[in-house]
Amino acid sequence: MSDRLTRITTRGGDAGETGLADGTRRSKTSLHFHALGDIDELNCAIGVVVAQLGAEHELRSQLIDTQSRLFDVGGAIALPRSELILGEDITRLEEFIAEATARLGPLANFVLPGGTPAGAATHLARAVCRRAERSVWELLEACPNDYSASLGVYLNRLSDALFVIARRLNVHVDEQLWQQR
Questions:
Q1: Distance, first Cα to last Cα, the chain
Q2: Where along the chain do its domains lie?
Q3: Which of 82, 126, 133, 160 satisfies CB 3.0 to 4.6 Å to 155 for a cystine?
Q4: Three-state DSSP string of 2-35
Q5: 26-169: which CATH architecture?
Q6: From the CB of residue 105, how many other CB atoms can be counted at a distance below 10 Å?
Q7: What is the pLDDT of residues 9-40, one digit of tens each?
């Protein structure tokens, strides 16, 4: 693989604009960069979870694979009309959610975010994922011919998967449930 990043400081964005992968320049406040920033933040949040898991943890490789898929999502957003379709990835997430939920058993009430440090970090990643999903859907609505709706669907399933992962990471602690007044 060749070096892809030969210069980190380019000064190309000093005027409040930056480039998409297709060469077009856009304001840093555009929907594209809101979505890209939220996806980047989500990837970082998942990295915090991964950093807390042991090298042999059963969820580690799945989370690292998810980080790569988030780079794919970001790459698709950076290159309008890239035709990335995440159907198989969505199916894998749905299968994981079904299997993990069956192992965890039913949930009688809302879970308060917390638990173990890794579980709490995963709950935070789930919340960031929901924001990234909203940003991506906003972009999809504004540019319906440029992107596959599967980008938004993938993030929707990922937030569900992160909820299940947080519950699995907290399986050995008492989950705190919402107590309605």
A1: 58
A2: 26-169
A3: 133
A4: CCCCCCCCCCCCCCCEEECCCCCEEECCCHHHHH
A5: Up-down Bundle (1.20)
A6: 8
A7: 666 666 667 777 788 887 777 899 999 999 99
